[in-house]
Write a structure and sequence with these properties.
6 strands, 6-stranded parallel beta sheet, 422 residues, Hypothetical protein af1432, elongated, binds fe (ii) ion
């Protein structure tokens, strides 16, 4: 008996940002066409258009999709177009998918509006050969006109076009970006974790996302009644899990982070909370760190498995949420990246990373007086200098290998350094 072919939907888009209309459309396609899953395929940009002004960066667009679809087991992120060196065309991506998965039927989802300029796309016949096209019906597109167009394209291009009946939500990414810029609320138009991320990275000029309502969950919280964090209570709890030296270092990081936040215009409260909790998992024995990561499905890289001490950053973010009631994604991210750094760090990420390096109790690193001064003057240049020193130290045998993320972070800040010094 012939095996049933797999059916995969493909939801392409710039996703700048992803919003509920994308998600509803994908979910409807999944149901109406009995798909096995739907891939979200963020469109790559040609190199000269990467990180367009006013829009989110490629990394941010991907991260927004990741957050939006988390929790839906039949949605999956596909980075095929993101990783491409040059501009990727739909037909090429689809043909490649077909070649790699010959036993799969692909269904490419498009809006009715796109159908009318479908022939202007690059190689439309090849798109049709590689996938069936699901056309989302829109209210403002005349039904008869749409039927005619679908028939015409089927004859001309030899493809299969099907109607996708979905609720008409007149939402566009452009509208969301405009509203954010005009300080209008976009709450519920964009999934909550995406909105928190937009706010934490100040994408589209968003300054601040309102604090979540009080009493949202039964879990232990360290917030006071007015929604602010209770630092004293956090500190008392933390002292039970850190030794004396680590506690002294932690307070040093907290105050240094607060100082940097004052100078660089970051939230003082977030800097203090992230500084206070950044090493909250540090004193957990390494074996237990590994065990906790496995038990809680915290993904580990090969380097981390070999060097579990580094896991205190990821695990710290996990405990900050679980045991200290921190739900602010910006704080959790800063804790996550405080050891390795990463490319394109947020303001708070950089503040915590550098505060950890320069707090008054530190005395081992070279050039500390210079680095300390620089941290208060120029965060990106300081990131470059610190990462450079760190990599030099690590490659001189100061550690067993180097985490890839640190190298990527160094590459990123070296580029900024070079551009400035041209
Ligand atoms: Fe640390
Ligand atoms: Fe630390």
């Amino acid at each position: 008996m012939q095996e049933k072919k797999k059916k995969i939907g493909i939801m392409g888009g710039t996703f700048d940002p992803i919003h509920i209309s994308h998600l509803i459309l994908a979910e409807t396609a999944y149901e109406q066409f009995s798909l096995d899953k739907v891939l979200f395929l963020p469109a790559g940009n040609p190199p000269h258009k990467r990180n367009r002004k006013g829009g989110a960066t490629d990394l941010e667009r991907v991260e927004m999709v990741r957050r939006a679809i988390a929790g839906n087991s039949h949605f999956q992120l596909c980075l095929d177009e993101m990783n491409a060196e040059d501009y990727s065309y739909t037909y090429r991506t689809l043909e490649q998918m077909r070649a790699e998965h010959p036993d799969t039927e692909f269904y490419f989802i498009v809006g009715a509006d796109s159908l009318f300029d479908f022939e202007q796309w690059r190689e439309p016949e090849r798109i049709c050969r590689a996938a069936s096209i699901l056309v989302a019906v829109r209210d403002h597109v005349d039904d008869e006109r749409l039927s005619q167009k679908m028939k015409e394209l089927e004859e001309k291009l030899g493809g299969h076009f099907y109607r996708l009946y979905s609720t008409n939500l007149d939402i566009s990414s452009k509208m969301i970006r405009d509203w954010i810029r005009r300080k209008k609320t976009v709450r519920y138009y964009v999934p909550e974790p995406v909105l928190e991320y937009i706010s934490s990275r100040h994408i589209y000029g968003m300054d601040r996302y309102p604090e979540k309502d009080a009493g949202e969950s039964g879990k232990e919280t360290n917030r006071q009644m007015n929604g602010r964090y209770d630092l004293k209570k956090m500190e008392q709890k933390l002292a039970k899990h850190l030794d004396e030296d680590r506690m002294r270092h932690t307070l040093g990081v907290m105050y240094t982070a607060a100082g940097l936040a004052m100078v660089h215009g970051c939230s003082l409260e977030k800097a203090q909370v992230a500084g206070l909790l950044h090493d909250c998992a540090k004193c957990i024995p390494n074996k237990k760190k590994l065990k906790m990561c496995l038990e809680n499905q915290i993904p580990m890289t090969e380097y981390e498995e070999k060097n579990p001490f580094i896991l205190h950053a990821k695990l710290g973010a996990f405990l900050a949420r679980k045991k200290y009631g921190v739900e602010d994604e910006e704080i959790l991210e800063a804790i996550t990246w405080h050891t390795t750094g990463k490319p394109d760090m947020s303001l708070l990420d950089k503040i915590i990373y550098l505060a950890d390096y320069i707090e008054p109790g530190r005395d081992k690193a070279s050039r500390l007086p210079y680095i300390r001064k620089l941290a208060f003057q120029d965060l990106d240049e300081c990131m470059y200098q610190v990462l450079k020193d760190t990599l030099e130290y690590l490659s001189a045998g100061g550690a067993d290998g180097i985490d890839e993320m640190t190298e990527e972070a160094y590459g990123y800040y070296r580029e900024i350094h070079k551009k400035r010094n041209l």
